[in-house]
Write a structure and sequence with these properties.
Elements (H helix, E strand, L loop, with lengths): L2 H21 L3 H13 L4 H25 L5 H23 L3 H19 L18 H22 L4 H12 L3 H25 L5 H24 L4 H23 L1
Helix pairs in contact: 1-2, 1-3, 1-9, 2-3, 3-8, 3-9, 4-6, 4-8, 5-10, 6-7, 7-8
Main location: membrane
InterPro entries: TM_pro_TauE-like, TSUP/Inactive_protease-like
Organism: Sphingomonas parapaucimobilis NBRC 15100
């Protein structure tokens, strides 16, 4: 790799880690386009596999910081993660059998749709004390399991950690506040990313040199993201709208370029 490609990979890893640390998801949806259009990875499938490995490691690093701040609902995360891993394993196999260019078009359209949905105001009343127990299982499990399965299927198919879907999915299923959904989502991002990464690695679709550079940049970005999140915590709505606009813009670019 040349110096420019190395710097591009490090900076891309920093961006991924920053967003994961800041909003608990979204870094993964940017990883694939960053690898293809900035780092220069030629194969969409190799970009997906490489992104999955790097995002998993960066998500684990970010999870440590959120867990220390007691912002993780572990039982809800476990059920969502197990359901998601089943969906991700199936989605990864379907994704590898799909034409690479068509995959990018669908990926771009999904980014646009998700970005637009992020701009809508949430109307669900928050439940900060929500907890999966014997008493609450009858109400929570019928929501956690199918939503987790659907998110996992999309995550595996497109090779993403799924954080941008997991956060609203957890809020929809449990009504937990956004800060808890962000921390909890990282458990699921790590689990889904590991499932997708393993599938692609076994197929030889991971660029390990690029992966190492992404992880190095991602660790620094994660530290910065968590610190910035604490400073800008009261302006989370502004951050969400800004991130949604970025997701829509990148999705439009990917779709137009692939078509």
């Amino acid at each position: 790799m040349g110096t420019a490609a190395i710097l591009a990979a490090l900076l891309s890893g920093g961006v991924i880690g920053l967003i994961l640390g800041l909003v608990g998801g979204g870094g993964s949806i940017l990883a694939v386009p960053l690898l293809i259009y900035v780092v220069g990875v030629g194969s969409p499938h190799a970009a997906i596999g490489t992104a999955a490995v790097a995002v998993t490691v960066n998500a684990l690093a970010s999870l440590i910081g959120h867990a220390r701040a007691s912002r993780v609902k572990w039982r809800c995360a476990s059920v969502f993660a197990v359901s998601g891993m089943i969906g991700a394993a199936l989605g990864a196999e379907l994704g590898k059998a799909f034409d690479g260019k068509r995959l990018l078009v669908l990926f771009g359209l999904l980014m646009i749709g998700v970005g637009m949905s992020m701009l809508r105001k949430r109307r669900t009343a928050e439940a900060p004390d929500v907890r999966l127990s014997r008493d609450s299982a009858r109400a929570l499990l019928p929501r956690l399991v199918p939503i987790g399965l659907g998110v996992g299927l999309a995550a595996g198919f497109f090779g993403i950690g799924g954080g941008f879907l997991i956060v609203p999915g957890l809020i929809l299923a449990t009504a937990m506040p956004l800060p808890f959904a962000i921390g909890t989502s990282l458990v699921v991002v790590s689990a889904l990313g590991l499932t997708t990464a393993t599938s692609y690695a076994l197929s030889g679709l991971v660029d390990w040199q690029v992966t190492a550079l992404l992880i190095m940049g991602g660790v620094v970005g994660t530290i910065g993201g968590i610190a910035l999140g604490k400073i800008l915590g009261t302006r989370k709505g502004l951050l969400e709208r800004g991130f949604a606009a970025i997701v829509i813009a990148i999705g439009a670019y990917i779709t137009a370029s692939s078509i």
